Amino acid sequence: MTVRKNQSQLSATEKRRFVNALLELKRSNRYDTFVTTHNAFIMSDTDSGRRVGHRSPSFLPWHRRFLIEFEQALQSVDPSVALPYWDWTKDRTAASSIWAADFLGGTGRSRDEQVMDGRFAFSSGNWPVTVNTDTRGFLRRNLGGAGRLPTQADVDAALDITTYDTSPWNSASAGSFRNTLEGWRGRSGLHNSVHVWVGGQMTSGVSPNDPVFWLHHAFIDKLWAQWQARHPRSGYLPAVRTPDVVDLRGTMRPWNDVTPADMLDHTRYYTFDTTA
Ligand code: CU1
Ligand code: CU1
Question: 4-30 pLDDT, tens per residue?
């Protein structure tokens, strides 16, 4: 049984085992295949063309599936590990324990944004960034340098939206829970703004180079689950075939056998430590 916990509640042992599993996936080259896949979808997801992973209704089920695959890879290394989530409405500063040297390490130095502490620092030798948009081979962050962390009020406003998604099913969709949570509409910028707040690789298509990617998306996924529980009569949309986007029973690339409908019940795969 996989239980995803708030990262602030992890024991020292749980943090160590999670970090060790990340490092083993990196060492065995499995980690970077996830970075490559994510970047390929970012590059091909456009507002006017076929879109699957981002700026489209399947943003949430696509990332749910992506995280499940990654979590299963971690569990092949250490069956006790589950993805933790980062509740940035509560842990909102660069001094939060998530950024301590015993977990993800902190912000980058001013000169080149290079993360210098913890086990993901380049100098540790364990975390070479090889799938990159430029030649710098180190993990970069600039915590709080731009963007903002959304507040509980921002989250509540998104969770109040009753419609899952709306035409034109892209980054312009108004009155859409998905688009508000993804962060293209609304003042808070929700999901997108957190990527910008972390800075470095998190602002790019190769964002999974930063292990915080998984904790951020685990929280986005938890918010989707909360929205589903709050609006039991509001289903995934579009329900019928629609050009360029994945409808309820459409196939989500890169998988051949996964549809949004298959991803609606996360409890088949994991639960959360608390229900909010
Ligand atoms: Cu993504
Ligand atoms: Cu993201």
Answer: 999 999 999 999 999 999 999 999 999
